[in-house]
Amino acid sequence: xxxxxxxxxxxxxxxxxxxxxxxxxxxxxxxxxxxxxxxxxxxxxxxxxxxxxxxxxxxxxxxxxxxxxxxxxxxxxxxxxxxxxxxxxxxxxxxxxxxxxxxxxxxxxxxxxxxxxxxxxxxxxxxxxxxxxxx
Amino acid sequence: xxxxxxxxxxxxxxxxxxxxxxxxxxxxxxxxxxxxxxxxxxxxxxxxxxxxxxxxxxxxxxxxxxxxxxxxxxxxxxxxxxxxxxxxxxxxxxxxxxxxxxxxxxxxxxxxxxxxxxxxxxxxxxxxxxxxxxxxxxxxxxxxxxxxxxxxxxxxxxxxxxxxxxxxxxxxxxxxxxxxxxxxxxxxxxxxxxxxxxxxxxxxxxxxxxxxxxxxxxxxxxxxxxxxxxxxxxxxxxxxxxxxxxxxxxxxxxxxxxxxxxxxxxxxxxxxxxxxxxxxxxxxxxxxxxxxxxxxxxxxxxxxxxxxxxxxxxxxxxxxxxxxxxxxxxxxxxxxxxxxxxxxxxxxxxxxxxxxxxxxxxxxxxxxxxxxxxxxxxxxxxxxxxxxxxxxxxxxxxxxxxxxxxxxxxxxxxxxxxxxxxxxxxxxxxxxxxxxxxxxxxxxxxxxxxxxxxxxxxxxxxxxxxxxxxxxxxxxxxxxxxxxxxxxxxxxxxxxxxxxxxxxxxxxxxxxxxxxxxxxxxxxxxxxxxxxxxxxxxxxxx
Lengths: 135, 542
Known about the structure:
The structure holds two protein chains of two kinds.
Chain A: E1 9-13, H1 22-33, E2 37-40, H2 47-57, E3 61-66, H3 71-84, E4 91-96, H4 103-108, E5 113-116, H5 121-134
Parallel strand pairs in A: 1-2, 1-3, 3-4, 4-5
Chain B: E1 5-8, E2 14-18, E3 24-25, H1 31-36, H2 41-45, E4 68-69, H3 78-90, E5 95-99, H4 102-105, H5 129-135, E6 145-149, H6 154-167, E7 177-179, H7 183-188, H8 197-214, E8 222-224, H9 225-230, H10 235-254, E9 268-272, H11 277-298, E10 311-314, H12 327-341, E11 346-347, H13 361-378, H14 391-414, H15 417-422, H16 425-443, H17 469-485, H18 488-503, H19 509-517, H20 522-533
Parallel strand pairs in B: 4-11, 5-6, 6-7, 8-9, 9-10
Antiparallel strand pairs in B: 1-2, 2-3
Helix pairs in contact in B: 3-5, 6-19, 8-10, 10-11, 10-14, 11-12, 11-14, 12-13, 18-19, 18-20
């Protein structure tokens, strides 16, 4: 990677009321270590707050961490707002407690990658690097 | 998830074992090791039930009474929760433990915008006293104790528990609630905080002061090293921070002019069981000793029974894996063994499917049976503190004591626990450690069965507890109905009195009880606090 190439910029976000953020923080640090610029939203964010941070910071990716089982409605809402704001070029990935059977549903909503708990960090890192290249 | 680090030679012989707290384990321990650490039976251990309680707080341990099993339960609606309570009681569970949904934990009513999609999802939704009336119907509140897993609005939920008990004809003096009510740990891990540190700690002081006078059988605070450990703390840090947090609550009540012996005996602890088993056993034994010494020497506690570290040792969530989930049943059994060998008063286990979903009735029952068969079948009730006197266990218990004290010293040196939490000092440290652990698992330095060794084997389809949209709507409907039927004048008056009392810095508990009784909603009461206190500003991570 040439030095003047723009760093990949990522927002790791915790939507909703859940406060279990060990996973989100670990992924944030791993991506940072992998040379990306990472912003962590902090807890208890609404979808609109997440969208606003994503716009202000002009991130390339939004990573949602959801542990409560509400991943489908939350992601649906985020994708809708991205479209409304005309920023659907931002890639979305989702992590947390995600049952296998929900992965296709999330992909249908337009999510680029799903990384349920237990996914090796390097898989997430590789996914982001590869997706950024093709973008 | 992490256990010890093992340094091996090329023939797989172990050269060194290093525990998370930094203790190096030798291949063999002898009487010489006890000599070296200056082991003194009376000073370091003493008989069970004797200061410093290293061997346990009761002279006869589980011979006099088996542990209390308190699986974490709470589903969707108060009706479902009531049903589940009765089921668990009929299976022999001896205490209740209520899980609340996230809107309730965060002080939002079910019809609030922030509650959308979360009503009843991870626990019971509570908006008004009506919900508690349903959840605790036909439960003998004078016979069974109830854990309320709630923190930021624990004061409100405790008031509601008193209100429901009185509604069903129980004297507050006979009921026993155990609200979790530990806000500082929420700020380190778990994240269900609302108000800034100072007023949040003051509310905890209010509940302690009030319980002492009105609900003396209530355990107003359950200090949770548990979630701090889940967030990445070492076992030594888990205990160190828990004790310092407990001290912060003690200091708040002492500043009101009370004698410590009048309230500290009702404190309890919630501590974690995953990790290397010997290290955890040493941790629990050392923790009892340090807590007792802390109370006696630092605070001048006089009554020995007020120096007891009474605890729920259990859970083990981070130790469980998503890979090969059935393995978690075995892990749970070993974690429960650790709790029993460590003299837990109360216990509960995470269920094997928790990496996927809220435990199903079947998996919750497996956890309960795991706990029961240790007591009734395997022999854990035979004799108290069975590992006492082991050259190995006594040596590492003493070493663990030193490690815990080192961690306590670091925080006090930094400026105290309140500052360390407000600044995010502890949060950054445990987050970094959590990351190091994940890297250790990825590199294979930390072994995890099914994850980085013995990976062949099947994953399973897990039976999911599905979100019930209908129950959520029913909950909102009930809230609306209560709001229609209640006396708006009484509610407005009670809320206004709560507001005045809060502004004047009075103990808010009697005012909250009054609000609950006239069916003010959780959200209305929380909003009074939000407007006066503001909200906690999360310190930055990087």
